[in-house]
Design a protein that fits this description.
5-stranded antiparallel β-sheet, alpha+beta, globular, 36% helix
C-alpha cells in the first residue's frame, strides 16, 4: 500500500487528542477522509506498533500505543543490530553494529548495506537471507569472516519487519560468538593440548565419544560431582547417576529420555541445551549443596559429533547474590511504592514528556514540567556538574547509565535522583533528543549508609567473629579473625572450623549444630590454630541464628590466658 505521510500524521494527531480512544467514524470526520481509507491507514499504524486497537462489542476503538519504539531500544543491546528496507538501505543501526563495521551513523544511515560488507566472504549468504526474510521467513545463520589475522564468528538472526509506511524490511541481529568458537576450534586442533587443559582446569570437564561413552572426566569434575573418575570412564552418559539427576532437573525432561536426548545430540550436533548456560544443583555430603553452571556443546569429529560439558561451581556467586538480595530486602519495603519517572527531551534538552509519577516523587504536575529543562529543578551548585554531562551528551549523543544528580522537590527539599538515558533519532537518522528514566534514590542512599555502618562495626570489632554454615564451612569472617589466625579473608572463608579447631570432628558437626539449634546459645573454651601452627587459647561464644530460611552459627572468639 502506497502510504501518504501527511495523512498518517493527521490521523496520529487526532489520536493524540483522544487518549481514551476513538472510532474509525470519528477519525474520518475529524480528518475529512472517507471511512474506508481511514481504516486502511489504521491497519498500517497498528501493524507498525504506533496504534493499538480494542474491540467493544461490534465497535473498534483506536488509540496511540504507549510502547517504546524498537528503534529507541536498539542501543541497549550488546548485539550488533541493523535494520534495512527492501532496497537494502540501512534505516537504523545501533552503536555496536557501527563499531563492528567501523562506521559512523552519518555514513551508514540510508546507504546500501552492500557498500560496507563487500569485503566479507559471508556477504553473499547474508544478502540471500535478507531476500528470503523480505518474503516473511524468519531465519538464523551461523557465519564468519576474517578480520586481519582473526576469524570472527557470528550467529545472525533475520527477522521480517514492517515499517511505519507499511513497507517491508529486515532486522538483522548479529551476535558475536567468536570466543565460543575459538574454544571449540582449539579443542579440535590439538588433542594433547586439550587433555592438558582439562587436567589443570578448575572447571569440571566431561567428554563423551560419538556413541555416548565417557572418555574424559577431569579431577575438578570428580570433585564437583563427588564421583570417582574410574567409576565413570567407559560408561554411557545415560547410565551415570549424576547425569540422570541433573537431566531430571530440566523442565519436562523425564530421566528415561536422557538416552534419546544424548543420541540425538551426537547425531545432529543440535540441542536446545547447546550454547546455553544450564544451572543444576548437586547434593554433597553433610547436607551441603553446590550450584553449578554447565555449558554443553558438540565437538565435530571424523565420525560425527562428540559431546562436551564444562561445569563451573557458582555456589559462592549465588550466595553473594543471595546476600545482596537479603540486604536489599531491608529497604525494599521503603521503596516498594517508589516508581521510576519516564521522560523524554528534544535535541536541545527541553522536556517534551514526563510520566505521571513525577507528581508522587517530586510533587510537580506533569504539565508544569513539560517545556522546561532539568536545570530549572536543580540547586545552583549542582548545575555546573549537570552542564558537564549535558554538553558532552548533546554534542556527541550516547547512552548513559546511573548518573546521580540533586533535584528540588516542590516543597523545597532536595532529593538525590539516578538518571538513565538513551539517544533517539528521527526518520532521517538525525539526533532528536533523549528518552530515559529518573529514579528517586533518597531511601536507598540512607539504607546504603546504614548497611555500610553495620559492616564497618563488625569488621572493626576487637573480637574475632565467624559466621559458620551447618556443614562447618565459614560463610563470613571479620578482620579481627584474620589477624588472630594469620589468614586472609579469602583463605579463611574457603576453610572449615575443623581446620582451626582440632577439638571439632567433621563427623560431629551435624549433631553439634542440631544441639545449638535447641539451646540457641553456649560458651566454652578451646584452642584455635594459627596459620603457622600455633595454638591460641580462646573463649568461644556460639549463637544460633536463622536468616531468610538459612541457619548459621554466629561465633565470637576471644583470646584468653590459661594462667589466669
Amino acid at each position: 500500500m502506497d502510504v501518504n505521510r501527511k495523512e498518517l500524521l493527521d490521523i496520529k494527531d487526532v489520536l493524540k487528542e483522544s487518549p481514551r480512544g476513538i472510532t474509525v467514524t470519528e477519525i474520518s470526520k475529524a480528518v475529512g477522509m472517507n471511512r474506508h481509507s481511514v481504516a486502511k491507514y489504521l491497519e498500517v499504524l497498528v501493524a507498525s506498533g504506533h496504534v493499538d486497537m480494542r474491540s467493544f462489542g461490534p465497535s473498534k476503538v483506536y488509540y496511540l500505543s504507549q510502547r517504546v519504539p524498537l528503534s529507541a531500544m536498539l542501543s541497549f543491546s550488546s548485539d550488533a543490530i541493523v535494520i534495512v528496507d527492501k532496497d537494502l538501505l540501512i534505516r537504523n543501526a545501533n552503536d555496536k553494529f557501527l563499531e563492528t563495521m567501523g562506521l559512523t551513523r552519518e555514513k551508514a544511515i540510508n546507504r546500501n548495506i552492500e557498500n560496507y560488507m563487500n569485503h566479507m566472504p559471508m556477504t553473499r549468504n547474508i544478502l540471500e537471507h535478507i531476500g528470503e526474510s523480505l518474503e516473511g521467513k524468519e531465519q538464523t545463520q551461523d557465519t564468519s569472516y576474517r578480520r586481519g589475522a582473526d576469524e570472527v564468528y557470528f550467529s545472525v538472526k533475520y527477522i521480517p519487519t514492517i515499517f511505519d509506511d507499511g513497507g517491508k524490511g529486515v532486522t538483522i541481529i548479529m551476535s558475536d560468538v567468536s570466543e565460543r568458537r575459538r574454544i571449540e576450534n582449539a579443542v579440535r586442533e590439538s588433542e594433547h593440548k586439550f587433555r592438558g587443559m582439562i587436567g589443570q582446569s578448575t572447571d569440571g570437564i566431561t567428554l563423551c565419544d560419538e556413541k555416548g561413552a565417557v572418555i574424559e572426566y577431569n579431577e575438578s569434575m570428580s570433585r564437583l560431582t563427588n564421583t570417582k573418575r574410574e567409576n565413570v570412564i567407559g560408561k554411557n552418559v545415560w547410565e551415570i547417576p549424576f547425569f540422570i539427576r541433573a537431566y531430571a532437573q530440566l523442565p519436562d525432561r523425564p530421566p528415561v529420555s536422557l538416552k534419546k536426548f544424548v543420541l540425538n545430540f551426537l547425531m545432529s550436533g543440535k540441542s536446545s541445551m547447546k550454547h546455553r548456560l544450564n544451572i543444576f544443583d548437586i547434593q554433597m555430603p553433610y547436607g551441603s549443596q553446590l550450584t553449578v553452571q554447565a555449558n554443553i556443546f558438540p565437538i565435530k569429529s571424523d565420525k560425527g559429533y562428540m559431546l562436551s560439558a564444562i561445569v563451573r561451581d557458582i555456589t559462592e556467586q549465588k550466595q553473594a547474590e543471595e546476600a545482596l538480595r537479603q540486604s536489599e530486602q531491608k529497604f525494599r519495603g521503603l521503596m516498594e511504592n517508589i516508581n521510576d519517572i519516564a521522560w523524554e527531551t528534544d535535541n536541545e534538552g527541553r522536556i517534551t514528556y514526563v510520566g505521571p509519577q513525577v507528581r508522587d516523587i517530586l510533587g510537580y504536575e506533569p504539565e508544569y514540567v513539560v517545556g522546561r529543562t532539568i536545570l530549572d529543578f536543580m540547586p545552583e551548585d549542582e548545575k555546573a556538574k549537570y552542564l558537564k554531562y549535558y554538553t558532552k551528551a548533546y554534542a556527541l549523543p550516547r547512552m548513559y547509565n546511573l548518573i546521580v544528580f540533586l533535584l528540588y522537590h516542590k516543597d523545597g527539599s532536595i532529593h538525590p535522583i539516578e538518571v538513565n538515558g538513551s539517544p533517539v533519532y528521527d526518520e532521517k537518522g538525525e539526533f532528536a533528543g533523549y528518552i530515559g528514566v529518573v529514579r528517586d534514590i533518597t531511601m536507598r542512599k540512607q539504607m546504603e549508609e546504614t548497611l555500610e555502618l553495620m559492616k564497618f562495626s563488625i569488621d572493626h570489632s576487637e573480637e574475632a567473629i565467624y559466621w559458620v554454615k551447618p556443614d562447618g564451612g565459614f560463610y563470613y569472617v571479620n578482620d579481627a579473625a584474620c589477624r588472630m589466625l594469620g589468614y586472609t579473608r579469602e583463605e579463611l572463608q574457603s576453610m572449615s572450623v575443623t581446620d582451626v579447631d582440632k577439638n571439632i570432628k567433621a563427623s560431629n558437626i551435624p549433631r553439634q549444630f542440631g544441639k545449638l539449634n535447641k539451646i540457641k546459645y553456649c560458651k566454652f573454651e578451646t584452642g584455635h590454630l594459627t596459620k603457622d601452627g600455633t595454638s591460641i587459647p580462646v573463649e568461644v561464644t556460639q549463637n544460633y541464628l536463622e536468616f531468610n530460611g538459612q541457619a548459621y552459627n554466629f561465633c565470637f572468639a576471644r583470646p584468653i590466658s590459661r594462667g589466669k
